Amino acid sequence: TLSDRLAATFKNLRGKGRLSEADIDATAREIRIALLEADVALPVVKKFVAAVKERARGEEVSGALNPAQQIVKIVNDELVTILGGETRRLRYAKTAPTVLMLAGLQGAGKTTLAAKLALWLKDQGSSPMLVAADLQRPNAVNQLQINGERVGVKVFAPEPGNGVGDPVAVARAGVAEARRTLHDVVIVDTAGRLGVDAEMMQQAADIRDAVSPDEILFVVDAMVGQDAVNTAQAFLDGVGYDGVVLTKLDGDARGGAALSIASITGKPVMFASNGEKPTDFDVFHPDRMAGRILDMGDMLTLIEQAEKSFDADQAAKAAAKLTGQGGDFTLDDFLQQMQQLRKMGSLSKIMGMLPGMGQFREQLENFDEREIDRIQAIIQSMTPSERDNPKIIDGSRRARISRGSGTQVSEVNGLVDRFFEARKMMMSMAKGGGIPGMPGMPG
Ligand code: GDP
Ligand code: MG
C-alpha cells in the first residue's frame, strides 16, 4: 500500500528541513504507483502528479509535519478538490417537480439507485415519484416497480391503459403525472446498453429534451476502473450530465474511477452506492474517497492532529538535540515529548494510526495511559542536574527519587533504562528515518 511505501520514503526524508527536488521526485513516484494501483487512468495520474509536484515546490516547510507528511497533505487536498471539494448538493427546481434523470450503462445500478434516491428524498420530507422509462429490457419496468414498492414510493410505468409505449413518451407523461399528483421530485430511470451505442445515446438525449431535467446524474459502476473514463466521456458528449453517482463501492474497488471521471469531466461525484439494499446509499464524501484512493489509513487524521497540537519550536529543539546539534537529549526532553504525545490524543490510538505500526499493536493494547503520569512523577522528583545528565543517577539517588515520586525503585530503574534505550533509538531514527516524537514506548 501507499502507506507502506511512503513509510519507506519517510526514512529517506527524515530530518530534512525542506523539500528538495529529489525528495519531491521520490514521493511523487510512490504516489504515481499508488494511483495507478487504484485504477486511476494514466493521463489523470500524470496530470495529478504534475500538479502535486508544482504545489510541493511552492510550499513553505511546515513546523508540525515532516516533508513526506507535508506532501501527503498536499496530495490529499488536491484529491479532495478534484473530487468536488465540499459535497455538492442536489439542485431543486424553483417550481416543483424537480426532475432527476439517471443515465448510464446497463448494470451500472440505475434502477437500484432510483429507489435509493427516492428513499433518501422521502426521509428528507420529499414526496418523490419514480418513472420507468427503460423499455429496453423486458423486466426493467417490473424491477423498478418492485424497488419502488420496497421503499414505499409510487412508480409511473407504461400500462396498456395509459397509452404510452415509447420511453420518451413515458418520461414526459410521468413528469406530467407527478405535477398533477403533487409529487415534488421525479426520478426518471432510463435504459442502458452493455456498451455505449448511438441509438441508446440518442434515446437518452430525447428523454432529456422531453423532460428538461434539473439534474442529470451519470451512474457508473466503481468496479469498472479504467474503462469508466471512456464511458463517462461518451455520456458527457452524448447526453451531458451535472453530477456523477458511483455505485458498488461495497466491492473492493479502490475508487480510482471517481478520480478519473471527476478529473476528466470536471463533474462532481454527488452520491455513492455501496450495496444492494435501499439504505446502502449516501451523499458522496470527497475526503473519505481521497483516503480510500490513497489507502492512507488514518494517516491523514494523524497529520491533522499533529498540526493542531504540535509545538513547532519545541519540535525543532528536540530535533536539533537528536541530531546532536542542541546538546544531549535529556529526561526533561523525554518528559516533554511524552506530554506532547498525550496532547495529540491517546498514545495507543496515535501509534495505531501510523503506517507500519501494526507490529506494535499488541504492545499498544496493553499500554496503560497512566504510565505517563508515573513517568512524570518520577522525572519531576529528580533534580535538574539528574534530568540533564541521567548517568549520575546512582543507587542512593534512585531510592530518593522513588520515595519522592511514590513509586518503587524498580520503576525508577525501569524508566532510566527505557530512557537510555529510547535515546539510542531516537538517535538512530534521526539518522536513518522513522517517526518523530515517539520515544520510550513502555512495554
Ligand atoms: P441498471 O441496469 O443500471 O438499472 O442496474 P441495476 O440497478 O439493475 O443494477 C444491476 C445489478 O447491480 C443488480 O444486481 C443490483 O442489485 C446491483 N447493484 C446495484 N447497485 C449496487 C451496489 O451499490 N452494490 C452492489 N453490490 N450491487 C449493486
Ligand atoms: Mg435498470
TrEMBL record:
GO CC, one annotated term: signal recognition particle
EC number(s) stated in the UniProt entry for this protein: 3.6.5.4
Principal subcellular localization: cytoplasm
Keywords: Cytoplasm, GTP-binding, Hydrolase, Nucleotide-binding, Ribonucleoprotein, RNA-binding, Signal recognition particle
Name of the gene: ffh
Bias (Basic and acidic residues) ranges: 386-397
Entire protein: shown range: 4 to 446 of 524
Domain SRP54-type proteins GTP-binding as annotated: residue spans: 268-281
Subcellular location: Cytoplasm
General function of this protein: Involved in targeting and insertion of nascent membrane proteins into the cytoplasmic membrane. Binds to the hydrophobic signal sequence of the ribosome-nascent chain (RNC) as it emerges from the ribosomes. The SRP-RNC complex is then targeted to the cytoplasmic membrane where it interacts with the SRP receptor FtsY.
Native source organism of the sequence: Nocardioides panacis
Protein name in the entry: Signal recognition particle protein
